[in-house]
Amino acid sequence: MYKILPFLLLPFAGQGQQRGPERIYGMVRINDSTFVDRLEISVTDWIEFMRDGNENERPDAAVLAQVPYGYLFAPTTSGRTETVGAIGQFSVLKLALPADSMRTKDQRFRARLYTSYPIVGITYEQALAYCAWRTSRYGSYRYGSYYAKTSMDSIDEVRIELPTPDEFDRLLTRTDSTNNKNCSLFNYRCSRCKSQDKALTGRYAFLRPGSGLVPADSYLPEAYSLYQLRGNAAEMTNTRGTAKGGSYMEPARECTAGWSQPYAKPEPWLGFRCIARIRAR
Question: Assuming Cys at both sites, which of 23, 64, 159, 246 could form a disulfide with 250, CB separation 3.0 to 4.6 Å?
Fold first, then answer.
């Protein structure tokens, strides 16, 4: 739907030193010892986390009532259901949904699409619990090995964490869509152009910038091929109560480096992504 533009890599401390693992599933290497998720943690990621012994980590019920995918977390009913498949980081998931919510092609399309939306409605503590769980699953990703063979003999430790505010700021580019006459580059509050109004019709009509959450891989990637680093869901950092990157509710300026979004409870505009820190033996 959108033309992907090339971005220059931003310098990060440690680049140019001894190379670490080439890849971690779903992540991008930003220096020899640090990787970052390409996408915001999704609904699928969170359901997989819950199903792996974390059933009590449900998103906040009040927030689920405000987002379009809330029904994906409803208990399976005793009536007729239909199954939606989703690929998690460690397994393939099957979600049983009430047949009434899957009657039309549009409903089935949206149900599949909603699994790729960013998870919101969670607490800071729940985000930390997810990071700890993902750290414990080190080496068991579904696709391929956790790291490619390199000159390193082995890896001593992998920690999955929330990024620091400074790390998040260094990942943000200066690219701005406020003066773009063609369309919005990211999902934050801004005026839509006529060409975009024409393009977003039918099943895609609800993917309008600044109007609500969209799939985590929508719009354009920034430096390091990271999606939705600005806009969509604001993202928690390791500093409690401080989110970065802005959400779909903020104007473009407030989604850039130097700005932050305070929070005190689960919000329908607040999610997160993870950083992986590698220590070589």
Answer: 246
